[in-house]
C-alpha cells in the first residue's frame, strides 16, 4: 500500500506550481491584435504562431490539472494506488514516476498508453 500522504503532498505541490504559472500562461494566449498598422505581417504571423503554441501548452496544463485533481479525489476516497480498470494495486515505482497514474502498467499497456 503506497504512502497516501506522501503522494498527496507531491500532488498538492505540483498543483500549486501549475496554478502559480497560470497567470503568465493566460497572458500569452491572449488574442493577437488585428491592427496591421501597429504590427507588420511577419511579426503578426510570429505572434499567431506563438499564440498557437501557448494554447497547446495551455491544453496540456489543463489536462495535468485534471489528472492531479482526479488523483487527489482518489486519495480522499481511498482508491488511490489501485488501478481504475482492474482494481489491482499500482506498483509504487510507477506512482513515484507519475503520482497521477490511475492505471497499473498492464491496463495502461492494454489501452495503448
UniProtKB/TrEMBL annotation:
Zinc finger (dksA C4-type): 83-107
Domain Zinc finger DksA/TraR C4-type: residue ranges: 78-110
Organism domain of life: Bacteria
GO molecular function: zinc ion binding
Keywords: Metal-binding, Zinc, Zinc-finger
InterPro entries: Znf_DskA_TraR
Keyword Metal-binding: yes
UniProt-recorded name of the protein: Transcriptional regulator, TraR/DksA family
Organism: Thiohalomonas denitrificans
